[in-house]
Amino acid sequence: MIVGLDRDGPDVFQRTLRFLDSARIDALQLNIMTPLPGTPRAQAHFENVTRIPEAAATGQSPAP
C-alpha cells in the first residue's frame, strides 16, 4: 500500500486502518510515495513543495 499521494488527506491512516480491519488483513507493507528524480512526477512535486527545507528545520545554513 502506498500513502502520500496528492489526494491523500490527513485521515488517510484512519481510513486505511478501518479498511484493514473490515477486510481482516493482518499484515501490510506500507510505503510513502516518493517521486523518482528526473521524472515528470518529481518535477511537478518539487515545483509545488511546501515543506520546510531541511536546513531551515535544523537551524543549519544551506550548503552553497
Distance between the termini: 38 Å
Gross morphology is: elongated
Largest sheet: 2 strands, parallel
Number of domains: 1
SS summary, helix count? 3
Which range best describes the helical content: under 10%, 10-25%, 25-40%, 40-55%, 55-70% or over 70%? 25-40%
**Beta-strand residue percentage:** 5-15%
Query: How many strands in all?
Result: 2
- Mean pLDDT over all positions: 76
Sheet with most strands: strand arrangement: 1-2
Structural class: mainly alpha
Q: C-alpha Rg, in Å? A: 16 Å
The H/E string reads EHEHH
Give a concise summary.
The protein is mostly helical. The protein has helices spanning 12-22, 40-47, 54-58, and strands at residues 2-3, 31-32.
List the helices and strands and how they pair.
Blueprint (H helix, E strand, L loop, with lengths): L1 E2 L8 H11 L8 E2 L7 H8 L6 H5 L6
Parallel strand pairs: 1-2
